[in-house]
Amino acid sequence: MSNWTESANSLEKTFKFETFEAAMLFMQQAAIKISELDHHPTWTNTYNRLHVVLQTHDAGNSVTQKDRDLAHILDSLYLAE
């Protein structure tokens, strides 16, 4: 996991893309993997940036292996861009 910040019981990262459309495509591709994990991040998109916050609600809003797994998946998708 590169450049993820762990604080306040969450993992956070901002991804930057060339265009708004590229950010939207990434979100669509990530949504498939996210649904497979049944783990849903908090994310905010503004133009070409996507800010992601990961924490496991079922574990008292703390960081679990499920969050680390999703962070790794998101990083892998991003690097494949």
TrEMBL record:
SUPFAM superfamilies documented for this protein: PCD-like
Enzyme Commission identifier(s): 4.2.1.96
Presence of the UniProt keyword RNA-binding in the record: no
One Pfam family cited in the UniProt record for this chain: Pterin_4a
GO molecular function: 4-alpha-hydroxytetrahydrobiopterin dehydratase activity
InterPro entries: PCD_sf, Pterin_deHydtase
Domain of life: Bacteria
Catalytic reaction equation(s): (4aS,6R)-4a-hydroxy-L-erythro-5,6,7,8-tetrahydrobiopterin = (6R)-L-erythro-6,7-dihydrobiopterin + H2O
Keywords of the record: Lyase
Top EC class of this enzyme: lyase
PANTHER family in the cross-refs: PTERIN-4-ALPHA-CARBINOLAMINE DEHYDRATASE
Entry similarity comment: Belongs to the pterin-4-alpha-carbinolamine dehydratase family.
Protein's name according to its UniProt entry: 4a-hydroxytetrahydrobiopterin dehydratase
Organism: Aquirufa avitistagni
Source species taxonomy: Bacteria, Pseudomonadati, Bacteroidota, Cytophagia, Cytophagales
